Structure formats: C-alpha cells, structure tokens
Amino acid sequence: MQDTVKIKSRGRTLLEDPYLNKGTAFSIEERRAFGIEGRLPQRVETLEEQVARSYEQYQKFATPLDKYVYLRALQDYNRTTFYALVMAHIEEMLPIVYTPTVGEAIQEFSHIYREPRGLIVTEDNYQRLDEILASYGENDLAVVTDAEGILGIGDQGFGGIAICMGKLSLYSLTAGIDPARSLPVLLDFGTDNKKLLEDPFYLGVRKTRIRGDKYFEIIDAFIAAWKKRFPKALLQWEDLSKSSAFEVLARYRDVVPSFNDDIQGTGATALAGLLAATEQGKTLPDQVFLVSGAGAGGIGVAKQVKNGLVRLGLSDEEAKKRIYVLDSRGLILTDREGLEDYKMEFAHPRSDLANWEFASKNPNLIETIRNAKVTVLLGLSGQGGSFDQKVIDEVMKNTPRPIIFAMSNPTNLTEILPKDAICWTDGHAIVVTGSPFSPVEWKGKTHQIGQGNNTFVFPGIGWGVAAAGARTVEAEMMTEAAFALATQVTSERLATGAAFPPITDLMKVTNHVARAVAECAFRLGVATVTREEMESRLAERDWVPKYSTYEYDPS
Ligand SMILES: NC(=O)c1ccc[n+]([C@@H]2O[C@H](COP(=O)([O-])OP(=O)(O)OC[C@H]3O[C@@H](n4cnc5c(N)ncnc54)[C@H](O)[C@@H]3O)[C@@H](O)[C@H]2O)c1
Ligand SMILES: O=C(O)C[C@H](O)C(=O)O
Ligand SMILES: [Mn+2]
C-alpha cells in the first residue's frame, strides 16, 4: 500500500520536480487529476520496472565519469528512481556517486555541469542570505565546503560542491535523510587553482581566494542566516583546507550542531578499524602508531586514536607517547619553528628521542618506524605510493602482523596498493584503504580489503544527532561511533583480513552507529527529545525511496 500525500504542484511543473516526479509511474487517475494526461507514455510502470530500465541504461555507459553523469541526471529528474537504483546496486554504484569517481567529476565539474543544485554563497550575495534562504524549503542538514581541500586533490573551486552532493546522497541512502530536506553548500571564495582560473568553462568565482577577516565575515554571515532559518539543523564541514578546518570547527561548534567530517568522522573511522583489527581493542594499547600526514585527516585520526587509548585505560600522556605524526617535513617535534597550533598536541619533545638514530633534523618515515618500533601505519598524506617496500620491511621488523591503513583518496593517491601490502608482508598484514579495492589472492587465500572511509560513520552521526535532537555534537559521540562501528566487524570478516564491514552492510551499520551517537547525546544531556521519540526515530528511516499516491491540494 502506498501512502497518500496532498500536493499542490500540477502539469509540467510536477513532472519537472525531481522530488515529486514519478514519470511513467503516475497512475491514470493521477495523470488526470494533475493535468499531465497525454504527456506520458500510455503504460503505467512500477518503481521496480523503472529501476530495471535505468540499470540497463546505466550499464551502457562505458566510463565511470559517464556513469556518474547519467546517475546525476537521473537524480535531478527523479530522486526516487535514483535512490532506489543505487540502493539496489550499492556496491557497484557507490564508487560512482562517491569516492573515487566523484573526485574525477569534481575536477571536470564545470564541463559536465547541467542542473543547478544547492546553495552557493559568494562575496556578492552573502549579505542577502536571509532573503535567499527564505526561498528554500525546510532543511535538517547541510554539507558545507569551501572546496580548498577536496579529498587529496586540493583546491577544486566550484566543483567542490559535488563532494557535498555525494555525501548527502549517502545520508539519504543509509540514514534515511529526506533528500528534499538537505542542502549542499559551496562557500565560493574563488580559487587558487590556476587550471580552473584559465578554463573558459569554469563556472565558479574567477578570482583568487578570499582569505583572512573577510573569509570569516562571510562564514559568520552564512552561519547566522542558516541558524535563523534552520535553528536545529546539523551542519557537516567537508574538505576545508587544513589552515582553516580546525578554526572553523572550533568557531561554530557551540553555535550550531556541527562537526568536521575529515577531522572527526575520519578519526572515528580509523579508530573503529583499529579496534576491529586488534580484537575489539584487546591489543590496541600495545601498538605504536605512525600517522603520515598532519592535516585535517591525520590530526583527526591522531586525536581519536588517543581518545580510544584513553578509553582503554591509558593516560592522556601515555597515549600520546605511542602516537607519532609526520608531515611533509618529517616527524613533528615541539622545537620546530613556526609549528602550527593544530599540530602541537602531537608534537614530541626532542628529549623523547634520546636513544634514536637519525640523519637530519627531523626523523623521516623509515627512521621513525625503526626507532619508535612502529606497528601501525596510518596514511593520510595524499602521497600515492609513499608506503613503499622499504617502509613495509621496516614495520615487519617490529611486528609479525602489521596494520596498514592507506586512507588517502582517491585511488591514485593510496599510500600502498593492497596487492603490494599483502605481497611484501607475505599475507600477514591487515590492509585498509580509503577508496574501494578488489580482494587480493595470495598463496591460495583471498584477502578482503576493508574500506576505511568516513562513510561508515558520518551518516550515522547525522542520524544519531537528529534522533536525539542533539544541541551540539560532542567529541565523545565520535568515540562512541567508533566503538559501535568496530563491533560490526565480525571475527569471520576479520579472518578474511578486513577491518571494516562490507559496503553491503552500510545500511545496518549506519543504524547501529546512529543508536550509539543518540544514546551518548542523552547521557551527556545534549538531547532535546524524549527517549520514546528517539527510539521511534531510530526504529526506521525517515525517508526511503518509494512512491506515494498523490491527491490534489487545492488550498
Ligand atoms: N579515508 C577517509 O575517510 C579519509 C578522510 C579524510 C581524508 N582522507 C584522505 O587523506 C588525505 C589527506 O587529507 P587532508 O584533508 O588531511 O589533507 P591536508 O592537506 O589537510 O593534509 C595533508 C597532510 O599531508 C602532509 N604531507 C604531504 N606530503 C607528505 C609526505 N611526503 N609525508 C608525510 N606527510 C605529508 C601535509 O604536510 C599535510 O600535513 C587525502 O588524500 C584525503 O582523501 C581520507
Ligand atoms: O570523501 C571521501 O571519500 C572521504 C574523505 O572525506 C576524504 O576527504 O577523502
Ligand atoms: Mn573529506
């Protein structure tokens, strides 16, 4: 049985509204009642039939980018069919609507551009945001980027809005966030990407980036207008550059319910995988961690690994002593001149290196692994291939079972190819990658490669926050999300080498994470709904791709 809803839209307008359009699935009665009789083929189809045809069309596109363009067009024409199609083929299509193909789409965005989507804030419109937002429907969620630190591909200007669209598609698929009530937001400050500035098709603001006071003046205005119009909505910061991500998160975290996906979501994801890889944390406190990359992702991971170790009984100081963070200049030490604030927490004093041997001022990757006896490598540097055979050989000297998380995206920036990691460790490593990889066959065994991507947590965080009506997003909710996700990796799954659940479990896992986050909001006293209300919001997805029967609302 379909639900019945009353709608006002009629005629062509109804067929052109992607949220309401049903295409060939409009019944004969609806076609008459809404003035669209004669505009559609005579045959009335079910959603399943539409999905089957769409899948046939999808398969005819040869390249991932063409498949992306097709799916985006479908999404802009009929949201229900789009989501039903992706849901039915999630393993096949996630790499298209999301990482890695979304990275290619972002780079080509001004060339593949068709339909307008989302909100674009610029220096020219930020003072009129109250008026502008008044024309938008209700929103419960925004994914916001300034597009300066997209995946590992840097400043992508206007194209960056597509990462927000990709993340929101996942929210709708796995957390049941109504696509009509979520908004991708691009803060278009211009771009310093020369290729884009010189591209005749480039659609963004064709100027170098606004920085400094003006940058914050514009974001302040956006946050004020957003909060006024949608006071309870959740805001996810995505792919800001490291030079602003930490400051932006801190500036607004108590102003609107908000979190940074790259810092916090990635941190929770990495911790979850590490817990799973160490039998739910049993041997986690024995490991020595090296994080390669000290940006939003790397520092976020270091923070969350520390929180996880503290939860398992270590003191803050003991935990930090086991974590070594490197950036492009080597191991981060407290005596480095001009050391950025966000790196300070994980800087070791030089006195920690009393018995170390290393050649130049800061130990490099191999020297750190050797001297600190590193057993876990976490790659968030965006440096493809940087975990080479020499690096892996060095880790093998410290442990028989290295844990190697090559989390950089997209695929070509992965620190190590899974097949190399398995081969160089003779099948002994637990290997995780940020982008999807096929299983690896080695000496008669199939090694599954867990996908350590924040998609395993951010939709659950969003659902949990919404279910509890949380006023703020607290750090502890991230730790809860991590522990909850880890329990979703069965021992059978871990025995195949994977420290993350299969992507096909994403729906189930997201619900589990959401529950942990919502419970935590209650415990911390930041929830604003009753427990019964929370339970009912967690019991089923608010939105699923199916059609309702329409009745005309003449009011
Ligand atoms: N798997 C996930 O869920 C996930 C989440 C967030 C980020 N990431 C990935 O992590 C990577 C970094 O993202 P970010 O947002 O932190 O970027 P970022 O620009 O903020 O940080 C990159 C860091 O890497 C350092 N770096 C550069 N060259 C290095 C080298 N040779 N050795 C060590 N460090 C080096 C830089 O100094 C910087 O500290 C990207 O590829 C991104 O896709 C993955
Ligand atoms: O977008 C992704 O696939 C994960 C992450 O947020 C990233 O920036 O790489
Ligand atoms: Mn990101």
Question: Which structural class matches the secondary elements?
Answer: alpha/beta
Mean pLDDT: 97
| CATH evolutionary superfamily of the domain at 264-455 | NAD(P)-binding Rossmann-like Domain
Tell me the name of the CATH class of the domain at 264-455. Alpha Beta
Binding site for (S)-malate: 409, 453
Domain Malic enzyme N-terminal: 75-253
Binding site for a divalent metal cation: 238-239, 262
Cofactor: Mg(2+); Mn(2+)
Key structural traits:
binds manganese (II) ion, malic enzyme activity, binds (2S)-2-hydroxybutanedioic acid, 555 residues, 5-stranded parallel β-sheet, Rossmann fold, alpha/beta, binds nicotinamide-adenine-dinucleotide, Malate dehydrogenase, globular
Descriptive notes:
A divalent metal cation binds at residues 238-239, 262. InterPro entries: Aminoacid_DH-like_N_sf, Malic_N_dom, Malic_N_dom_sf, Malic_NAD-bd, Malic_OxRdtase, NAD(P)-bd_dom_sf. The protein is of the alpha/beta class and 555 residues long. The protein is 44% helix and 11% strand. Among the domains are: 113-256, 3-Layer(aba) Sandwich (Rossmann fold); 264-455, Rossmann fold, CATH 3.40.50. It contains 25 helices and 16 strands. The two termini are 26 Å apart. The model has no long low-confidence stretch (mean pLDDT 97). The structure holds nicotinamide-adenine-dinucleotide (NAD), (2S)-2-hydroxybutanedioic acid (LMR) and manganese (II) ion. Nicotinamide-adenine-dinucleotide binds next to helix 14, helix 15 and strand 8.
